[in-house]
Amino acid sequence: MTSVTSLFAPVEAELSALSANLKKLVGARHPILYAAAEHLFEAQGKGLRPAIVLLIAQATVPPGQGISARHRRLAEITEMIHTASLVHDDVIDTADIRRGVDTVNSLFGNRVAVLAGDYLFAQSSWYLANLDNLEVVKLLSKVITDLAEGEIRQSLTQFDTSLSIEDYLDKSFYKTASLMSGSAKAAAVLSGVEPELAEQLYEYGRHFGIAFQIVDDLLDFTSSTEALGKPAGSDLRQGNLTAPVLFALRSKPQLEPLIERQFAQPGDLQQALGLIEDSNGLALTKDLAAKHARSAVDCLAGLPPSVSRQALIDLTEYVLNRLY
Ligand code: FPP
Ligand code: MG
Q1: CA of 119 relative to ligand 2 center, distance in Å
Q2: What's the 86 CA to ligand 1 centre distance in angstroms?
């Protein structure tokens, strides 16, 4: 399988500068934030979100022009918002480990973690405002609201077996796809593209993000704790009912009482996992992710052919095949 970092080749130089710059931006004022930032941006994933921003930037700038300083700053803001949401998420989920590394809450306590997350959100807003582009400010501030909305929806629907696939997809948009769609469109807006193309790129990010979240939810059932870098199977245990469970509920009604009583009896969770594995839930989940990945590719039709456009296409394939 192609590694995801090889897909980032067209924007590799920008991406490697990004991580160092983020640590400087975040850590300049407070040693504790520097420690948190150093830890965060090292342990972070591979920079998928800023890579999408930079690839779209490169695919949309007028011929002869390169990625601008504002595009780079937008990529940094996108990663800052993502990181802030994860710092808060790990407090909410009482997670001790992410990507195989101790979380900020486990190292510094909840109080510092909440404040560090707040600080990152606040700082991203400051840099966002300084881009001096009202449309981009609107796009990204809507993303921050959406992240909170997604997390609230998720906590309000724990162990709720009446949740529909549509509700699940809406929540996935808020939690994951909004950031990808908003920042994809913002990159195109900074390049000065026509509104129609900017909207298509928003749709690329939306479908891409939904496919990404569906695969993430599938991997929680099919991957090992080592491969994930966090405990496997935690979604179901916490009552976060994702696509595999929602599909399985249709053909395995025995699942419902187990979930409704929140796996209170010994063996409940194991039995539920067995029922899901035995159902067509995992296959249907894969199909749903593939459908969104195909729709994402269709949204790139308005971009002229380029290596960056090809990388954006290949990324959808990577999302479907990723191992963790
Ligand atoms: C990961 O979910 C979490 C998110 C993608 C979004 C988290 C958003 C918030 C906590 C809201 C942010 C707050 C403000 C003030 C805007 P997950 O737990 O399913 O994934 P994981 O397995 O990677 O932890
Ligand atoms: Mg979490």
Answers
A1: 19
A2: 5
Rounded CA gap, 148 and 144, in Å?
7
Query: pLDDT tens, 190-226?
Result: 999 999 999 999 999 999 999 999 999 999 999 876 7
Distance CA 259, CA 159 (A): 6
pLDDT digits (tens, 9 = 90+) for 128-160: 999 999 999 999 999 999 999 999 999 999 999
The domain of 166 spans 4-321
CB of 144 closer than 6 A to ligand 1?
yes
Centre a 10 Å sphere on the Cβ of residue 155 and count the other Cβ atoms it contains. Answer: 12
Domain total of the chain: 1
Nearest to 51 by CA among 98, 83, 9: 9
- Ligand 1 close to Cβ of residue 290 (< 6 A): no
Q: Compute the distance between CA of residue 108 and CA of residue 31 in angstroms, rounded to an integer.
A: 13
**Best CA proximity match to 309, nearest among 61, 121, 56:** 56
- Of 40, 79, 86, 140, best ligand 1 pocket probe by most atoms within 8 Å of the beta carbon: 86
- Ligand 1 atom closest to the CA of 234, numbered from 1: 22
- Distance between CA 155 and CA 28 in Å, rounded? 34
The structure tokens listed for 259 are 């979930």
Ligand 1 lined by 85 (C-beta under 6 Å): yes
Helices (H) and strands (E) in the chain, counts: 18, 2
Assign residue 221 the CATH number of its domain.
Answer: 1.10.600.10
Query: Are residues 21 and 127 in contact, defined by beta-carbon separation less than 8 angstroms?
Result: no
pTM across the whole model: 0.93
Give CA angle at 134 (26, 127), nearest 5°: 10
